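A common beginner's mistake is to predict each chain separately and then try to dock the pieces by hand. The better habit, illustrated here, is to supply every component at once so that their relative placement is modeled jointly.
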Amino acid sequence: MKTEGFVRDFARRSVQRPWRLAAEASALLIAAVVAFPLYWMVLSAFKPAGEIESTEPRPWTLDPTVDSFRRVFGQQEFGRYFLNSLVVAVTVVAVSALIAFLAATAVTRFRFRFRTTLLIMFLIAQMVPVEALTIPLFFQMRDLGQLNTLGALILPHIAFSLPFAIWMLRGFVKAVPEALEEAAYIDGASRTRFLWQILFPLVFPGLVATSVFSFISAWNDFLFAKSFIISDTSQSTLPMALLVFYKPDDPDWGGVMAASTVMTIPVLIFFVLVQRRLVSGLGGAVKD
Amino acid sequence: MSRMTNRPLPGPSAQSPSREDGPDGAEPGAAALPAARRGAGSGPAKGASPAPVTAAARPGRRGGGGRRSPLARGGWTPWLYLAPALVVIGGLLVYPVYQLGLISFLEYTQAQVSGGEPATFQGFGNYTTLFGDPQFWQVLLATVLFAGACVVSTLAVGCALAVLLTRVRAVPRLALMLAALGAWATPAVTGSTVWLLLFDPDFGPVNRILGLGDHSWTYGRYSAFALVLLEVVWCSFPFVMVTVYAGIRAVPAEVLEAASLDGASQWRIWRSVLAPMLRPILVVVTIQSVIWDFKVFTQIYVMTGGGGIAGQNLVLNVYAYQKAFASSQYSLGSAIGVVMLLILLAVTLVYLRLIRRQGEEL
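With all components supplied together, the output reads:
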């Protein structure tokens, strides 16, 4: 990786040694500050109840316990909520990635009437304040018979993640040279074959970067779960489960932190998996 | 925008081959695209006044016949590819927007929802009610100021740390990157409750460290907003940091090399080479931050208990939610939604103008 190597050399050569050490020390310090809330979350999840409710909070614990986790998983249907959240997020990611891939291919590899208009529409669609649509979507989901089902969470999130995903994928599809496409046809590949066997794998890093955003938006969803899942709580998702423990007057901090930890882990795993492609992907997409 | 020096820094055509060393397999091909087209969007040669460059880029813009891919002779194929996206977006995004507008002109309360009474047309009645309510103006002002503060802080922190990342060796860089990804990965509800615990007057470590006793952060209007702001910046700076860092890393080595061989100072390189090349990225992260921060819901809702004491921490989103779902005034809630939509639309139009002015091909 020539670029990175050079940037590093460039930094090394041009920054004087004491300054570089100061920069590195502050980077480590900032990393610690940024990670602190997460550390505190996990720590508090393992603290015994009496210790969390201590007015002299300590940054360690002498007798870690899984009581809080036991309470969380003992709560009615917590596992079910977890599974629901996973189903919603995975469905949204997979479906919107496929649809966005096709649409991004259409708007980058074809010239047709209204192409530019469509692109501008996708851009504008990104800006729609999703939260403001809760009211009409509530009625729409009611009419579609989706209230109190996971569909009420999946369908809108697919629609909301699409415009951004298409816009972002565009750069990746564009970067695949057209010569490659011509070569594929000369070799006798069909259009479908080119699309799925050549273009799709090449654009995959872009799909990964895009999916981070749709995964987070679906996994984080709080407003829709709160508004659309009103009577059948077995269809609820993790954010709602967490709020069972969080009562503003008298929160069960141990339970809240244990549930938070459980809720954060899948996203962290997802991030670790895509981490390398994310950094390169963002650079590629945005620079376009 | 900075003016280019007369020194022969490599122009767009010289830099495009170097994009080849991108980290993944998809990128090598980028170099094969016509140099003129790639240069149009991001080259430092844009120089002081964007207008002539846009004009220069135009010949390549319409995509003459030579660039036409075999796929391009598709007839109905592009529409076939677009169909799923258009159906989903049309049905679940465009149609609800239309409905939102419609409801905002009707009288729509519990009676109409349950079907007991027909919805009656109100004209601008709901808007008159809304604009006549001093609380609306107060919430609007709070939303704009709060979102603005979030955007500025997020960008400042994100960009500063992206630059810092380029100055340090692998270990501190990895540490900062992982911490940031952790913050980014934290779901909004989770982040909100964790920050509440950190700043809890009785059990939180922050007051102990700062020696604030049992000061309550969520009690006062400004300290409650400040607390939410800290959480929002914490979970949204990573996007800016990672993106800007990726952008800096993608700057071709030759450009920086040439600049430093030519004796350009550090500051000069930042100002005249990097800043113009990063401009498209900065525009994207700024706009995204504006959109996200303007729509903050979960953090405010959870951290201030639905809008703070006596609604002192309401922002438009939460205000609309409270109006619609807590007091069943769906039409008022929709009118607030329409106001938000119009504000964000204005932001989008500014964004489009910026893209157009950069001469980027849509």
